[in-house]
Specification:
This protein is mainly alpha-helical. The chain contains five helices and no strands. The longest helix has 55 residues. The N terminus and C terminus are likely disordered.
Amino acid sequence: MKNRRKRYIIDKRLQYRLMIYNGIYLLVIILAIGAGLVLPLALELSNPDLSLAQQGEAVNKILYLQSRLSPVLLIVFLILIAHSVVVSHRIAGPLYRFRSTFNQVAQGDLSRVTRIRKGDFLLNEQAKIEEMIEALRSRLHHIKNEHAVMERSLQSLAEYPLGASNEELAAIIAQLKEGNARLKKELEYFRLSDTDMFDLGKGNTMQPRVVRG
């Protein structure tokens, strides 16, 4: 069985941005270390009253710090970059799956279940998305059932002969009214904006609306 290579870079924009932020943090740390250790020695070298021996001692200290700190800072930088990739992957992976799920829902597909891997972040968000989809799925199931009942009643009404009794027709019409009431109750679960409700009242076809932040 062919092994699938694990992709750590899923969302380049997000993950590269997080790595840049971590790089900036490291730069701030380096500047702080330089200000606390190297800067006093550099200022000491600029003192014209120092003897050659004292200047040599200050230079040796700077060189010593440079030889010790440079490898450590390089190792810390590599560890920080690797850690950024791993952590950002645990964020970008779930976001990638969430976007895929949102696209499926926008296309009317509520059958998909969002699953993220063990150790990923955004577990609470995943649970809320599943809760939302399950609520929509349940409501849609009820609406489809009511539609099927009304469709059967309409079919029965269409097949009735012209000489059918008023009582039989009234019973079918009553079933249709009951089904319509139940369907209306299910649809009242969904709330629209006042403008959308006005469009529905006028019988206009609703167009997608862009929500601007």
